[in-house]
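Key result, reporting period 2: structure in, sequence out.
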């Protein structure tokens, strides 16, 4: 009798083991499927590279063009989705030297689902990459870009429901994307655009802005014309974008965010103006629009910096020693000497060029200082916005 009981107990235990193993295998398969789906989604949203081609080119004045990019259909079939305000890093090779530049996406997120991005490029005097693009980008040309990146996007938990967007020149590009997203229902906030231009001929996307304003009551466009000889339209303003002008068009007795995108001179001026408005810091958003130039123009730039410096850099198992100019960022110096550096935003924000400073001193503009406390402790810098004050020895990761 006892033996029969033990036998039945053993069979029941073995049955439980078998059932448990079956459930384990089933769960493992389910987890594998979930993991595979998550990996596929991550790859679709954050590809290392996207391989595109130029479908069309739109002239926007003498020195500005919009390029419509679509998947090449072979290595890239679908575009990565994005939130309005993101940028793409363009990868090019100029005279054998790999270079990168970040350009804000001026198309809407909905257009990405339709299979196209639009990048608007302004020709910069003395600019290496913009000149190359103007001379070489034509319909059908292959273009390699990154996934959409950046933090210059509307965030409901952080930003106010009403936003004053301040743009200068080609700094209009991320705001075009935001306005389109609002019209499409992909974003939900009120956008008042103060767009600074010399005259009406230099206003980019003038027709598109007028159509978006007419289409959606959450969008208001005010052109701010600086040329004193130009007679402005009734709905527009004359002069420069000041604290007084921002306050004039901002909501009363309720919070509002200020988003700024434009040339360096505009940032330098507005940083002082915004201090007059007592806006909570979290409500002020800057887009790092291109590389910083002329560091010596900053009030905190030290005196007695030599014009020429020596930069010794280690990249994996190779070491290079080159001559540089203290007016150039370390990234610019390395690139000018044919040394490829990992780069994305070129504005100190993304951290992609994170490197080690082994010896020497650098100057970092306050507006581009995104390093953490640990970076200071362990001697880490972002070469894209670090300007040499002395001879430098550094170690950078290999370009990806």
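The corresponding designed sequence is given below.
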């Amino acid at each position: 009798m006892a033996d029969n009981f033990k036998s039945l107990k053993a069979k029941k235990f073995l049955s439980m083991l078998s059932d448990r193993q079956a459930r384990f295998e089933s769960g493992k398969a389910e987890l594998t499927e979930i993991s595979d789906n998550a990996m596929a989604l991550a790859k679709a949203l954050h590809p290392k590279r996207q391989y595109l081609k130029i479908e069309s080119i739109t002239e926007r004045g003498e020195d500005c063009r919009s390029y419509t990019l679509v998947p090449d259909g072979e290595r890239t079939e679908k575009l990565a989705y994005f939130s309005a305000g993101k940028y793409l890093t363009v990868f090019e090779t100029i005279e054998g030297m790999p270079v990168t530049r970040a350009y804000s996406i001026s198309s809407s997120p909905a257009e990405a689902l339709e299979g196209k991005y639009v990048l608007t490029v302004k020709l910069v005097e003395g600019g290496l990459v913009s000149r190359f693009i103007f001379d070489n980008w034509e319909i059908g040309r292959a273009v390699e870009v990154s996934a959409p990146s950046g933090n210059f996007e509307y965030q409901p938990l952080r930003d106010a429901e009403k936003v004053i967007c301040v743009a200068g020149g080609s700094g209009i590009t991320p705001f075009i994307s935001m306005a389109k997203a609002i019209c499409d229902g992909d974003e939900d906030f009120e956008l008042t655009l103060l767009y600074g231009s010399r005259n009406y001929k230099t206003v980019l996307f003038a027709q598109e802005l007028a159509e978006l304003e007419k289409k959606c009551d959450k969008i208001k466009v005010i052109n701010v014309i600086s040329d004193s000889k130009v007679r402005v339209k009734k709905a527009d303003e004359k002069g420069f974008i000041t604290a007084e002008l921002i306050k004039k068009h901002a909501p009363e007795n309720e919070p509002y965010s200020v988003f700024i995108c434009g040339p360096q001179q505009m940032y330098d001026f507005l940083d002082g103006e915004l201090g007059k408005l007592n806006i909570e810091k979290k409500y002020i958003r800057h887009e790092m629009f291109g590389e910083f130039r002329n560091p010596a123009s900053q009030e905190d730039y030290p005196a007695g910096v030599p014009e020429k410096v020596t930069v010794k850099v280690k990249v994996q198992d190779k070491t290079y020693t080159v001559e540089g100019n203290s007016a150039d960022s370390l990234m610019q110096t390395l690139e000018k000497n044919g040394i490829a550096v990992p780069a994305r935003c070129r504005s100190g924000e993304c951290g992609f060029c994170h490197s080690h400073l082994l010896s020497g001193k650098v100057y970092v503009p306050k507006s581009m200082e995104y390093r953490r406390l640990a970076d200071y402790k362990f001697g880490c810098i972002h070469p894209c916005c670090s300007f040499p004050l002395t001879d430098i020895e550094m170690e950078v990761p290999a370009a990806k």
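The first strand starts at residue 50 and ends at 59. Residues 2-45 form the longest helix (44 residues). This case is discussed further under Risks and Mitigation.
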